[in-house]
Each structure stands twice: as structure tokens, then as C-alpha cells.
Amino acid sequence: MQFEEGTTLDRFLMESLRDHPEASGQFVNLLNQVTLAGKLVAARVNRAGLAGMFGATGQMNIQGEYVQKMDIYANETFKRALEHAGVVCMIVSEEEDAPIGIPAPFVPGHYVFCMDPLDGSSNIDTNASIGTIFCAFRRKSDPSGPPTAEDALRSGREIVLAGYIVYGAGTVLVLSTGKGVHGFTLDPTVGEFFLSHPDIRLEPSTKSYSCNEAYSAQWDPRLRAWLEARKEPSLGWSSRYIGSLVGDFHRNLVKGGIFLYPPSQKAKAGKLRLLYEGFPLAFLVEAAGGAASDGQQAILDKVPKSLHERSPLYIGNRDEVASITEALRGD
Ligand code: AHG
Ligand code: MN
Ligand code: MN
Predict the structure, then answer these.
(1) How far apart are CA 106 and CA 84, in angstroms?
(2) Which residue CA neighbors atom 17 of ligand 1 most closely?
(3) Residue 155: helix, strand or coil by DSSP?
(4) Which among 296, 297, 294, 283 has a CA at the least distance from the CA of 253?
């Protein structure tokens, strides 16, 4: 299906769902609530320095990280937009120890929503790209009872929707239901997302890498050798690293690149969380023709044992993910 410039997100969704008569209105409504929350967070991010939104709250979250004011604002905004809309039965958030149920009098819906409400917190005060990352599953448990942990602790292959909103020079929503990856740019003058990146596809390989090389002395020596080999000048590789996963991933999705966050002394299982960072981006990258691995297996083949489980993450053009996984095989 071809879409021309100027296609709004609403029109894109209506036409995409035309061959899904079984799709309930809940899917479109879920996305409408996500985009509403995204617009509200974007407006606050763009004025963060003026709205007293810089800096930390002084609290520490379950991740052992200092919570920034913007983390809380984004978390509350997405929760409020979703909990009353009758579209989700449970919300898993990086900022919440336990899953959030749907409070009475609101009615639970079909979907389990997993989110990193504000990714790249260390960059909030620096005006570098930050974002919201999310994925959704259809509820598995009996809808007549309360949702269960099994509704969220499941294979990445059961994801039905994944996406992110990157709050950068512009606000861009990138999403996929598994068939193609599409980007929509917010026109703040009219408050509407318009199709700007139809059918994003990744080339088989790249010559750009993203990682925090300060930790490379702590990596598996085979990984260090993999990276050093690519610094041979005649190969023409470059490096880009923002320090916001969502910003680094978006650049790599649009221009090609391999992102690496290996285990380190400080983060023995890797730093990034599987359910609301690794899974959504792995779903998107595979839908765009790329790959995502933890060094041993495909990220989407994993089943988290706990909500905030961390995982090593190697994600981007498929040839580089394959060669890293090959280098690390048999850990
Ligand atoms: P979050 O702000 O949601 O905690 O995520 C931060 C993550 C991710 O955005 C980024 O790739 C990574 O932290 C950067 O880690 P280092 O500062 O260790 O490089
Ligand atoms: Mn994050
Ligand atoms: Mn976060």
C-alpha cells in the first residue's frame, strides 16, 4: 500500500486496518492515546528549561537510578492517557516497580502496554535527543479476572505493536505492527503527525557503530577484537554515540548503524531492559530488515523472567549483528 506525503497518522491507520476487519477500535484508540501523550511530553520537553523540568527529583527508582523530573512527567502522562481509555489491562513502566492495573471506574482493554516513558534521562538537561519507547502485547489471561504477570513475561515474538517517539530537533513517531516500519513527524503548528518516513528499510550492512567505548576494557575480549578490527582506516568505519538509546537507534534506523551495549563490570547482564527497550527496538529493526541479538540469541526469542530484566543488546544492520553473534558464540 502506497501513501503519499501529507498522510496523517489517522488516515494511515484507517487504511492499514482496512484488511483487518477483525481489528477492534481499541487498536486505533491505543495509538491515539499514545500519540496524545507523546504530544504532551514533546511540548514539555521543548520547554523543559523554562518549565522547571530540568534536574532530578531526588528519588531513586527500582533500577537504582536517580529519577529526573521529566521521567516522572512522562510516566504520569502516558499512564493517564492510557488508563481511562479502555484499551489496556496493564501497564509495565521502567519507572514503576510493579505493573499498573486499571483503576475503577475505568474499564480494562485488550492490550498490555510496556514502556520506557523517558529514555535518555542523562540527556534531558543537554537538549540532546530523548524519547519514549513502547511495545504492546494482546492480553493472554482470562479477561473476567485480573491481569497476571504472564501477560507481560512472554516471548518478544508475541508483540503486536512497537514504536518510539523521539523528542529531538523534531518529534518523530516510528511504529510497526510487524509489516513495515513507518515514521511520522509532528507538525506542532497543527498538532498532527504526518507520514515522513514511509517503509523504512535497513541495508544488509553498515560501517557505523554506536557504543560507550569507555567500558570497552570491561568487554568480552572477542568483542573488543571485533571492534578493533573495524578501525582499520581502509575500511572507512565511523562512530556515533549520543548516549540516548532512542536517539542512537533512530539515527541507525534511518542511516544504518550497529548499536552495542555489552555486559560490563557495572552492568553484568547489560544495562538495557529487555521488556521496554530491547523488545520494542528489536521488533522494529527486524520489521525493517535488520537484526537484534544478546550475543547468543535473537532478542525477540527471549522470555523475560522479571519485568525489569536486563540484557546485552547488539542491534542494527543484520550482517554486523550476525558477525558479532558469531564472534561471541559459545560464551
Ligand atoms: P534511561 O534514561 O531510560 O535510563 O536509559 C538510558 C540508557 C539508554 O538510553 C542509553 O543507551 C544508555 O542508558 C546510555 O548508557 P551509558 O551512559 O552507560 O552509555
Ligand atoms: Mn531507557
Ligand atoms: Mn527511562
Answers:
(1) 5
(2) 243
(3) coil
(4) 283
The answer to whether 171 and 123 are in contact (CB under 8 A) is: no
Alpha-carbon distance 101 to 274, whole Å?
A: 21
Residue with cell 522479571: 306
pLDDT at res. 148: 94
Distance in Å, CA 23 to ligand 1 centroid: 35
70-87: per-residue pLDDT in tens? 999 999 999 999 999 999
Query: Cα-flanking dihedrals φ and ψ of residue 125, to 5°?
Result: -80, 0
CA distance 173 to 8: 12
Q: Are 316 and 256 in contact (CB under 8 A)?
A: yes
Domains of the chain are 9-197 (3.30.540.10), 208-329 (3.40.190.80)
More confident residue, 178 or 223: 223
pLDDT digits over 230-281, tens only?
999 999 999 999 999 999 999 999 999 999 999 999 899 999 999 999 999 9
Cα of 92 to ligand 2 centre, how many Å? 13
Q: Report which DSSP code applies to 300.
A: G
Beta-carbon contacts of 320 under 8 Å, excluding residues fewer than 6 positions away, are 205, 206, 209, 258, 314
pLDDT at 21 over 90: no
Interatomic CA distance for residues 35 and 175, integer angstroms = 11
From the CA of 71, how far away is ligand 2's center (Å)? 10
**The length of the chain, given as a count of residues:** 331
**In the chain, which ranges are continuous DSSP H helix?**
9-16, 25-46, 69-83, 221-229, 245-255, 279-287, 318-328
State the cell numbers at 134. 513502547
- Which residue's alpha carbon is at the smallest distance from atom 1 of ligand 1? 119
Beta strands 208-210 and 238-239 are parallel
pTM: 0.95
| Distance (Å, whole) CA 317 – CA 43 | 32
